[in-house]
Amino acid sequence: MALAAPSFPQMENGVITLQEINIAGAVIVNIPFYSNPRAGDQITIIWNFSAVASMMLTTDFPLFPIPLRVPEIYVPSVGSYNVFYIISDSHGNTSTSYSITVQITAFLPPPPAGQLQMILTTNASNYDWPAINVFPVNRGVITGNPGTQVRVTVSDPGLIGDGVDRGDVLLTLGGNGQADFSLYSEEQGLLVIFAYAVANPLNSVTLPTTIGPFRLGNGRIKSVNYSTGAPANNRTYNSIYLKTEAETSRPGEPITFVRAIIVEGSARIAGYPGYYADIILNGDKSATINLANTVSERVVVELSLPEESGSVKTVETVFVPPSASTFSVFNREQFIDYQYHPGKNL
């Protein structure tokens, strides 16, 4: 079965502009989650049937999506380009993704009036309450005309959060033309979110997101997970989830709180004044740290345990412009087909 097609974080309204490419010095190609990644896997980007970028995994637990850079030299002018990727493992086995056509333009065309747009965070961990008492979610914002009723559906095994706890929800865009939602899953992997206007199902938008793993912390910080990609609207969170050991290295001395300090960026820690917070741990020694921002930028957060010297972990997360969007003509029939053929090109 072919792998899922790559995605492009610089893409907006279905195109990538030369300005975005010039700013980054490259086209960024995101490799979505695939089964059984292993250290030694070679990922190669094929751009108009030429290999233009590659990387080798150095871990069995990569953070998805995996970004690769296609240098500007391979994008000499505006036009359409066919892009896919090949994964070769250490035994010589290869898998090829579905291809996608990328449109490069000089300027970004405005979306049609009332066209639905959507921004999603990615990488929040799967929900596993017995293991860690936090509720990781990826968050979404849908934008369109105020008052529009929008049906939002997430692919299995994802669920809409916020007390809905099922695979679909009906939202009404508020006076600001926006509606917020969250989603979660008990399994790691790729989820696809499809939203359409009830009065005009052709007015639709589709985006993938990833449910990621917890990763090794440092010292007595056992494990850390975080979401990234929230719009800088001062209300949609990028979140950090973590768990510590029960005690310090000195037996009988419990660990009771984690310190979070924003060392780079303008974000705030929700529920606390300023860039600094001492956060009391849950009973199982877990914690959730929510970040909001009004600036689209990279934010670096230092996590530490003042009760245990040397336990320090740095997390980097990104806030995107609130106007960032995706335009899609993906329709309901394609989404239903995707449910039964999840390797298909989105």
Please give the number of β-strands: 26
CATH topology of the largest domain: Immunoglobulin-like
Query: Number of helical runs?
Result: 2
Largest sheet: 6 strands, mixed
DSSP strand content: 35-45%
Order of helices and strands: EHEEEEEEEEEEEEEEEEEEEEEEEEEH
Helix content: under 10%
Ranges with pLDDT <50 over ≥5 residues? Answer: 326-346
Q: Provide the structure class.
A: mainly beta
CATH architecture assignment of the largest domain: Sandwich
The rounded distance between the terminal residues' Cα atoms is: 15 Å
In oligomeric terms, what are we looking at? single chain
Briefly characterize the structure.
With 346 residues, this protein is mostly beta strands. It is 5% helix and 45% strand. A hairpin with a 2-residue loop joins β15 and β16.
Word description of this protein:
With 346 residues, the chain is mostly beta strands. The chain has three domains: 16-105, Immunoglobulin-like, CATH 2.60.40; 117-211 and 325-340, Immunoglobulin-like; 215-320, Sandwich (Immunoglobulin-like). It contains two helices and 26 strands. The strands form six sheets. Strands 1, 3, 4, 6, 7 and 8 form a six-stranded mixed β-sheet that branches. A five-stranded antiparallel β-sheet has the order 17-18-20-24-22, with no helix packed on it. The radius of gyration is 21 Å and the shape is globular. The two termini are 15 Å apart. Mean pLDDT is 88; it is low at 326-346.
What characteristics describe this protein?
disordered C terminus; Immunoglobulin-like; about 350 residues; mainly beta; five-stranded antiparallel beta sheet; about 5% helix
